[in-house]
Write a structure and sequence with these properties.
Elements: H1 8-35, H2 41-49, H3 68-80, H4 87-100, H5 106-109, E1 115-118, E2 133-137, E3 140-151, E4 158-165, E5 168-175, E6 181-186, E7 194-204, E8 209-210, H6 216-250, E9 254-255, E10 258-259, H7 264-293, H8 299-323, H9 335-347, H10 352-362
Length: 368
């Protein structure tokens, strides 16, 4: 039986990550936004040097191979300070997909490669409905179509893209600079790097196929589970960060001659939010343990974590904005950044409705 109690290594990793991320703070995201940069390259280089990029890479290839629960710890601490980086797309999703397919992940661990996952073709997460064409041509394929809401889409050096070949959905690993591939930035509210990618007859060889031709979903499934769990952890950290800001404000702001935190109505709302965050933390810890010890049966734990994290983050930022009163969404104050990131994070890799439906289905609750 696994335990939800953090291991000694996870506690040490959390302490180190929290100190590093707190030092950067939301100011780092604000500076990147104002400079029009997808993320801080120097900050990412430091993360790589600390081994964060290789957290899911084997030691033989230069990684630390600490496991999914440890990756979630890092994602949570980045979420607490809204650090912008390619960690989820590269160190979690791409590293998992490539490693399970037997491909090298050394370039991820040493920071020479960053990845984007090109999956969505509409506003909603639906990999099974992929329409992008991978037409057979000689010994390879010609990929044509477009993908939208691609996280880290303009900055990544490589792209994992799902397309439909004659044998079925197939996952490709292509250079982001390959001829015929264009990338247009999407200005989403969270000020992170999102893009629309257009494939105008991009050539792909057999060596570019991740896993088996026609087995794209099988190759992608473990990576999606890992990404969804890490994104849930990021949303948990975001919730905790917003909660900390809010309670600090309740203890400092006076109205009618009293600290507003002394009003019972606000105390009850803060207590409710604290409980929701704690329950969500348990769901995410369970998802990490399942991915490490029984990954093929982790679907329920991961979807439960993503559904809960999306709802909890929404509650945390709504309460944060409201209890900060008139300053809640001013650009000069950080709380608005938490709300914007929570909204985008709730949609990426499946929203609450998608994962709640999966939980119901996996528990046999779907109506006949």
């Amino acid at each position: 039986m696994t335990t939800l109690t953090p291991t000694e290594d996870e506690v040490m990793l959390r302490d180190a990550a929290r100190g590093f991320c707190n030092a950067a703070g939301v100011a780092n995201l604000r500076a990147c936004r104002d400079a029009g940069k997808p993320y801080d390259n120097a900050l990412w280089a430091e993360m790589v040097a600390m081994g964060w990029a290789g957290v899911l890479v084997s030691e033989d290839e230069g990684g630390s191979d600490m496991g999914f629960a440890a990756a979630n710890v890092l994602a949570e601490e980045m979420g607490r300070s809204l650090i912008a980086s390619p960690f989820l797309s590269t160190a979690v999703i791409a590293a998992t997909a490539l490693r399970r397919a037997g491909r090298s992940t050394a370039a991820i661990a040493d920071g020479t490669a960053t990845y984007a996952l090109a999956l969505d073709e509409t506003r909603k997460f639906a990999p099974e409905a992929t329409a992008m064409e991978a037409r057979a041509s000689g010994n390879g394929f010609v990929v044509t179509g477009s993908k939208t809401f691609v996280a880290d889409g303009t900055s990544a050096s490589r792209v994992l893209v799902l397309a439909r070949a004659e044998a079925g959905l197939t996952l490709f690993d292509v250079d982001a600079e390959r001829a015929g591939l264009s990338r247009d930035r999407l200005g989403l509210v969270d000020s992170r790097d999102h893009a629309t990618l257009r494939f105008h007859g991009v050539d792909a060889t057999g060596d570019d196929v991740v896993g088996e031709v026609g087995g794209g979903l099988a190759a992608l499934a473990p990576a999606l589970r890992a990404g969804q769990a890490a994104l849930s952890a990021e949303l948990l950290g975001l919730s905790a960060g917003a909660f900390a800001m809010t309670t600090a404000y309740l203890k400092a702001r006076k109205q009618f001659g009293r600290l507003i935190g002394s009003f019972q109505a606000l105390q009850h709302r803060a207590a409710h939010l604290f409980c929701e965050i704690e329950v969500t933390a348990s769901a995410i810890a369970n998802a990490g343990r399942m991915l490490d010890h029984d990954p093929e049966n982790a679907d329920l734990a991961v979807s439960l974590a993503k559904a809960r994290a999306s709802e909890t983050a929404g509650l945390a930022v709504r309460e944060g904005v409201q209890m900060h009163g008139g300053i809640g969404m001013t650009d000069e104050y950080d709380m608005g950044f938490y709300m914007k990131r929570a909204r985008v994070g709730a949609e990426w890799l499946g929203d609450y409705g998608y994962h709640a439906a999966r939980v119901a289905d996996l528990r046999g609750k779907t109506a006949a």
